[in-house]
Request: fold
Amino acid sequence: KYLQEDSLSEECKELLSTLPKEKGWIGSYIYKYQGFWTSPRLIQGVIACQQQFQAQDTDIILVTTPKSGTTWLKSLLFALVNRTKHSVFEQNHPLLVKNPHILVPFLEHTLYVDGRVPDFSSFASPRLLATHVPFASLPKSIQDSETKLVYLCRNPRDTFISMWHFSNNLRLDHKDTNSIEEMFDLFCKGVSIYGPFWDHVLDYWKQSVENPNKVLFLMYEEMKENQKIQLKRLAEFLKCQFSIEEEKCGVVDEILKMCSFENLSNLEVNTNEKLSTGEGNKTFFRKGEIGDWKNYFTVEMSEKLNRITEEKFHGSGLKF
Ligand code: A3P
Reply:
């Protein structure tokens, strides 16, 4: 289903014929639209969302670079924001029976994909939504409203390894995988899903510096190493701080425990079910560790990626 392109409108097909294209990570090709690379279905989804999505001031939108821990952050956000409605001590908490991508849907991948017209009437306020779209290509209403943006990225080495595994996993259904060398070269050239990776990160980093009340910038590594501090930072940014009482009762720890890799990846829903867009839930849980790149990178690969990252982030204050 991920590769399915027969639902593309004539207009979109016409647009694609004018765009630069390169070998795809999952489907045959990815295309460069508004400066970033993505698949045909998602370009159609991005355009629909740019034209139709009306942000509300209370919306919370999670923006991530693909494979940076989106699934984890979705679960943390859901548990955090809804903790009055759904106590994290509940036996039948939604996160125990539904995949985080169902509870916090993607705009362009899910809600606006394949020409769908989303019905937001069942969404509780604040609405929790997600996207991978670069800042400059967000629907204008997101930029113009008080909508909060929570941004998550991850070091490019682990991001690459995770993306390579994920795309090969989806390609496997079609009995075909991509070599690490080939995909590494594409990643370094900026040709990755929603890449160039560095432009995506840098744009949101700048926005978070210029407008810290609008954009919170998080890193997977910091989240893993300082979970409690980062979760409290997130709560403060969203103006739903933990009370002293909640801290005493262990709510912070309970949220972290419920959303841990260990817990989520072993749930029945995340081992056996699929998303409506075709991906098996289990493909979103692989290792969940920092530094798996060391098991795959040659010295040359590591040096090359470091060099690019240093060049691109030079003077920005950003370090991975
Ligand atoms: P790895 O492939 O390195 O294991 P995304 O959700 O953006 O697609 O990112 C997927 C990555 O996040 C995968 O990384 C996955 O294992 C990891 N991940 C998923 N759930 C996690 C969790 N609860 N805690 C930490 N990492 C998690």
